[in-house]
Amino acid sequence: MFVTIERADAPPVLAPAPEVRARRALWGRVRRGAAPYLYLAPAVFLLVVWTYQPLAQAVQLSTYSWNLLPTQPLRPVGMANYERLVDLPAFWASVRRTGVLIAGLLPFTVGLPVLIALASRRVRERARTVYHALIFAPFLVAPVAAAAVWRWLLHPRTGFVDGVLGSQRNWVYDAETAHWVIIGITGWQLLGFAVLVVWAGLAGISGDYDEAARVDGASPAQIRRWITLPLLSPTLLFLVLTTVLLSPTLTFPLIDTMTQGGPAQATTNIYYLLYEYAFHSFDAGLSAAAGVLMFAGFGVLAAGLVWISEKVAFHDD
After folding, report:
1. How far is Cα 298 from Cα 291, in angstroms, rounded to an integer?
2. What is the Cα Rg of the chain in Å?
């Protein structure tokens, strides 16, 4: 619909009616508002397909009893899988081992990286690059290859470790040491990555703080204690968060290659336990229930760590 505007010195011009102008303005606002979401759409689509859809399917599967055979129908059991799971001593034992695993890896991902990164500040720039490369190298080794090499090194008779210690101990298949072997190898692989993260955090701290503290008479130890470490706290809390969330997943290849959860389930953490329920016991419902509980538990831990990070971390503004 158009209206005619007449002028004495010009031919008539057709101007859009108010309704047309309003629709065009509305469409322009919609396009401008939708543009950011269109850029995000591919990532959101992949997130839904590869994360949220499998999660919803796992929650649904946890309410069924199924032995993974395509010829067998799924039998609904409600919350019975969760009731069975919390009554199993093996489940709570795997939760305790997961806690020990996380606590054992924190020195490798938080404590030692800080010491190594602070020490590397005294190394000259070219030598520092080689220094970081040597520390980072174990992170590039495939877990299966690392497991094969460490099994040879820890062999009770011909291994390098027993040759040095003279103990002739079966480190991998001894229930007292197997879990610590897994923790040590995983920490050895993660150390280089954590050092580079800490070094990046140190590089982001302005040197003006150190100079001002030296002018005020602060010692190097006081500068590290009261300036460097507080400003490094966001990086350290990030490493704690990644250690808590990823350690059960990162140890899976080592456990599956070296111990298969043994001996006597000494290396079976919660992540490996749900794998055993699914592909050794062929109880898909129980495995899905364990996965849902693991997701919920780690979600609560992640939320708590993020809240702590917002409360106690110092930021260089």
Report:
1. 10
2. 29
Q: Which two tokens stand for residue 234?
A: 């966001």
Residue 161: partners with Cβ closer than 8 Å, 6 or more residues away? 153, 154, 171
User: SS3 of 156, please?
Assistant: coil
For residue 263, say if its preceding peptide bond is cis, omega within 30 degrees of 0: yes
Arithmetic mean of pLDDT, 22-39: 77
pLDDT digits (tens, 9 = 90+) for 276-285: 998 888 999 9
Report how far residue 179's alpha carbon sits from residue 176's, in angstroms, rounded to the nearest whole number: 7
Residue with the bigger pLDDT between 52 and 205: it is: 52
Given a cut of 70, whether residue 130 has pLDDT beyond it is: yes
CB proximity list for 47: less than 8 A, separation 6 or greater: none
User: Helices (DSSP H) in 154-228: which residue ranges?
Assistant: 160-165, 178-203, 208-215, 220-223
DSSP string over 166-180: -----STT-TTTHHH
Q: Is residue 172 a contact partner of residue 263, using CB atoms and an 8 Å limit?
A: no
Taking only the tens place, the pLDDT of each residue in 254-267 is: 999 998 888 888 99
Gap between the Cα atoms of 184 and 21, Å rounded = 69
